[in-house]
Amino acid sequence: MPEPTVKALRYFLTAVDAGSITAAAAQLHVVPSAVLAAVNQVEDSFGLTLTTRQRSKGLTPTTTGLLVLPRIRDLLDEYKALLTEADDMRTQLTGTLRIGYYAPVAPAFLPLVARRLRDIGALIEIEYTACDNRAARLGLTSGQFDVIVCLDEGPTARVDYQTLIDVFAYVLVPEDDPLATRRAVSISDLEGRDLVLLDLPGVSEYYRRALEAAGVDPNVVATATTLEMVRSLVGAGVGCSLLHMRPATDLTYAGDRVVAVPIRPRIESLRIVVGQLSGKPRRVVQAFVDELHTHFSD
How many CB atoms lie under 10 A from the CB of residue 246? Predict the structure, then answer.
């Protein structure tokens, strides 16, 4: 048997509440035959007699109908609530925003974007999850994240990526290092130097390729999986490092001062992108993406 449509259930409920086909048709602004067809469709779909129809008494629910009516009413209420919630997702800055990010200095800009969303009246809860590039992309396509910020590694099916910024490498040294007074350095200046490398997927391979292309045999004395640990090791004098995107402070967690020296000529940049599923996003997702672009354009 065919399942009843939402419209048929609504017409059926209206007819029962109104007590007649004609009265229901007047309320719904349709012809009586449309209401009658809906009532018949609902009863045929259930395979039960849910109403009795008499000219003198109109349309009344049977005992079985009285048992079914509350369920139909609840179903229509849930459907209406779902439509309202979907409309809120489309038009309102509300709900939970789940962000996956793979960018070592994301703490330097994601909190500012959160504040800007609050400034424009967003009533949201933001869940931040640090992950690697692969986990970020898989999390987006699986529904774990609403939006991701990560390194550009080419296209992904069903995902729209937009460039936020191209970032270029620099050399990080302690403030008393001879290179700290230079306006720029070359990769070859790292020959024979002790190096501390950021050991993250995609990033560490990039640094090693850059050193190899410059003919530098790296003397790696330490690796770390967080940006701040690399900066702290450099600040303590363990070695110098290759990094991208400078934090807003030159102080490490330990209070040591480090100096970022540009590399000339520039080497290949890393591109940071924001990704969201193709199609029509929730308004809060689009607002977050827009605020990211505003931040980097500023």
Answer: 15
The DSSP secondary-structure symbol of 15 reads: H
Place of tokens 């080497």: 267
Q: What would the pLDDT profile of 235-254 be if each residue is shown by its tens digit?
A: 999 999 999 888 889 999 99
Q: What residue type is assigned to position 95 of the chain?
A: G
Query: Whole-prediction pTM value?
Result: 0.68
pLDDT tens digits, one per residue of 221-233: 999 998 899 999 9
- Tokens for 11, please give them: 């017409």
Give 90's pLDDT tier (boundaries 50, 70, 90).
low
Q: How far is CA 31 from CA 4, 9, 38, 108, in A?
A: 19, 16, 11, 63
Closest listed residue to residue 179, CA positions, set 262, 248, 254:
262
CA atoms within 13 A on the CB side of 23: 13
